[in-house]
Amino acid sequence: MFALLIALAVPPEAHCPSTYEARALKIARPAAASTFLPEKTDMPDTTVRLVCRVGGKGALTTCTVRRENPAGWGFGAWARAEASRWRVLTREVRGCPVLGRSVGFTVRSGRP
């Protein structure tokens, strides 16, 4: 009886993570993605760690740059703007809803 009361007191989503890694989700990106064009031609390979909220219709909203290495090239701002065009297609993971949660992922630049 005591165990039953505890089970009823715990919300069903209590075991759900607040942030998902992108590799656990299916994310749609527009076919015509914009291209990052740095002002300088000697840009090194750059990585940006983003965390975004999954909003209505799977839209990535309120994206924040958590890490940009190396900083100062504008790639973080570009990645944040580009991510706002992507959509999360996954609705739930292991019974946990994705809507309203955060998703974290890394965007990498590379020289052509």
Helix-residue proportion? 10-25%
**Coarse shape:** elongated
Q: Give the topology string: H per helix, E per strand.
A: HEEEEHEEEE
Mean pLDDT: 80
CATH fold-level name: Fusion Protein Consisting Of Minor Coat Protein, Glycine Rich Linker, Tola, And A His Tag, Chain: A, Domain 2
CATH architecture: 2-Layer Sandwich
Poorly predicted runs of 5 or more residues: 1-11
Count of distinct strands: 8
Strand order of the largest sheet: 1-8-3-4
Alpha plus pi helix count: 2
The major beta sheet can be summarized as: 4 strands, mixed
DSSP strand content: 25-35%
How many domains? The number is 1
Classify the secondary structure makeup into a structural class. alpha+beta
Ends distance: 64 Å
CATH class: Alpha Beta
Based on CA atoms alone, the radius of gyration comes out at: 18 Å
Explained architecture:
This protein has one domain (16-108): Fusion Protein Consisting Of Minor Coat Protein, Glycine Rich Linker, Tola, And A His Tag, Chain: A, Domain 2 (2-Layer Sandwich). 15% of the residues lie in helices and 32% in strands. It has helices at residues 2-9, 75-83; strands at residues 19-21, 27-28, 47-54, 60-69, 87-88, 92-93, 96-97, 102-108. The strands form three sheets. A four-stranded mixed beta sheet has the order 1-8-3-4, covered by helices on one side. The protein is elongated and about 45 Å long.
